[in-house]
Design goal:
By secondary structure, the protein is an alpha+beta fold. The chain has helices at 15-26, 46-57, 93-101, 105-111, 147-160, 212-217, 275-283, 286-298, 305-317, 323-326, 376-397, 404-431, 437-452, 454-465; strands at residues 4-7, 10-13, 35-42, 66-69, 88-91, 114-116, 118-123, 129-132, 142-146, 164-167, 172-176, 188-192, 197-205, 221-237, 246-252, 255-263, 266-274, 333-336, 342-351, 355-356, 359-361, 367-368. Strands 7, 8, 14, 15, 16, 17, 18, 19 and 22 form a nine-stranded mixed β-sheet that branches. Strands 3, 4, 10, 11, 12, 13, 20 and 21 form an eight-stranded mixed β-sheet that branches. Strands 5-9-6 form a three-stranded antiparallel β-sheet. It is globular and about 70 Å long.
């Protein structure tokens, strides 16, 4: 029973009542306490939204509350009859299987995508080249899909989910994680820039290379600035492009340039080059830009004579014709879509650990690679599959979602897959960032040897295709 005393005409609480009120405030029974979710995903890009949809689709999480925090305004949707967009991804088989499992693949198929039946990669200082294709073209090497189309399909499924809430314009300001499993707080806490705060059993950082979640985890990060930029654009092709189902990539002195097919008459460009050159290309008038791009694919660069002689001997040993006779030139570019040219910095990043008590990392928050092999977002989607399966097993067994010992199973699976791919991609970038003749010789022999030895080539191709 609460007792109020009248002092000087004013009702005042007794000391006992003040102590009770203080306990109620500290226990979080006020209306402004932090809302609690089972899982909070910080970051609503391709990987974060797909993770939310995968959690919503898993029956194990039917009674779990999931919050997806997206810093941008509400997604406006995708117009499949509009112009092709300049940000695309080369999606491999594993990622497509993930899309099928969360029922977004039929939505993508009903819109538009382009199958890549073959990929050709070749050197600019020698005749070395390699072709990737499935046996008898029975399967696609990859599918080129616009990023906003993927988001549109995933958000369509999220709107149907009853246990996932999406919060837009939600930027994380600070994060507090449990120190360990015995921490009395026992939950992860975060505060948004607008003042709202939340708690959760598991906070998942899908907030990119500058992840706030990763910084709060305190894990070591190995990162490199390549001092290169990627230039993307949407291109128009000549009428003789055929069905345009081949992806082309040529290693130039400043970095690789790639054409990814979008339709019979259009392709997407990813040109990795120096910062100065990227800015120059972006500023060129359209006609001059198109000329520079066509020249990049056809120009004869200074040759390394020793490399050419070594390749001739290698091909003769395997009884193959000159690699130059196998070279297929890409379709001629005739135009660039207005406003489609854009640049982004290139680099390498890898977190020493993906998990801690109460938190886990996915996608670019955990790893970042050069786009030359098209593996970046596919590694992120692979993270999603591993994490959802790990959490489902943990929940079924009665573990807490933020239990580090169980989350370590997710980390081990990811590291086993990601590290070899990342080292390989970084190695390729390093090898093709020099014109030093001995290095040109070694990389040319390596590329041509892979082309001439089907078992090795198939091993690399299976990895790239997922």
């Amino acid at each position: 029973m609460f007792v109020l005393l009248r002092r000087n005409g004013v009702l005042a609480a007794t000391p006992k009542l003040r102590r009770i009120s203080a306990r109620l405030l500290s226990s979080g029974t006020t209306a402004d306490r932090s809302e609690h979710f089972d899982i909070i995903i910080g970051g609503g890009g391709l990987v974060g939204t797909t993770l939310a949809a995968a959690l919503a689709k898993k029956a194990t999480f039917a009674n779990k509350k999931v919050l997806l925090l997206e810093g941008a305004p509400q997604f406006k949707g995708f117009n499949a009859s509009g112009p092709y967009q300049n940000r695309v991804s080369a999606i491999n088989k594993n990622s497509i299987e993930l899309f099928k499992s969360i029922e977004v693949w039929p939505l993508i198929e009903a819109a538009r995508f382009k199958s890549v039946k073959q990929m050709q990669v070749w050197e600019s200082h020698s005749d070395a080249l390699i072709h990737f294709q499935d046996n008898n073209f029975a399967s696609d090497v990859a599918c080129i899909i616009e990023n906003d189309l993927i988001l549109d399909a995933v958000y369509t499924r999220l709107k149907e989910a009853t246990n996932v809430q999406v919060l837009n314009k939600a930027r994380i300001e600070s994060v507090r994680l449990p120190k360990d499993a015995q921490d009395n707080r026992n939950t992860s806490e975060l505060k948004l820039q607008d003042g709202r705060s939340f708690t959760c059993d598991l906070l998942i950082g899908a907030d990119g290379a500058n992840s706030i979640v990763r910084k709060e985890m305190g894990v070591d990060v190995f990162s490199l600035n390549y001092e290169r930029m990627g230039l993307v654009a949407t291109l128009d092709l000549s009428d003789d492009a055929g069905d345009n189902s081949v992806a082309f990539q040529r290693f130039l002195p400043n970095g690789p340039v790639a054409l990814l097919p979008l339709s019979p008459k259009q392709s997407s460009l990813v040109w990795s080059t120096s910062v100065t050159h990227a800015k120059q290309l972006q500023a060129l008038p359209p006609a001059e830009f198109v000329d520079a791009l066509n020249e990049a694919f056809c120009r004869q660069y200074p040759r390394v004579e020793l490399a050419d002689k070594a390749l001739q001997a290698l091909n003769a040993f395997f009884g193959h014709t000159s690699a130059q006779n196998q070279l297929q030139y890409p379709p001629r570019v005739t135009g660039v879509q207005t406003g489609s040219r854009a640049t982004f910095p290139l680099g390498f990043l890898h977190a020493s650990s993906y998990v801690t008590t109460g938190a886990a990392l996915v996608g670019d928050a955990a790893h970042r690679v050069h786009p030359l092999a098209g593996q970046g977002v596919n590694l992120g989607f692979s993270d999603v599959r591993y994490l959802v399966d790990t959490l489902a097993t943990a929940a079924y067994a009665g573990f807490k979602l933020g239990d580090k010992q169980h989350l370590l199973k997710y980390e081990r699976q990811c590291l086993t897959k990601n590290v070899p791919i990342m080292i390989g991609v970084h190695g390729l970038h390093t090898l093709y960032s020099t014109e030093f003749s001995p290095v040109v010789l070694l990389r040319s022999l390596g590329l041509q040897l892979t082309q001439n030895l089907p078992p090795i080539k198939n091993m690399f191709m299976r990895g790239a295709m997922g």
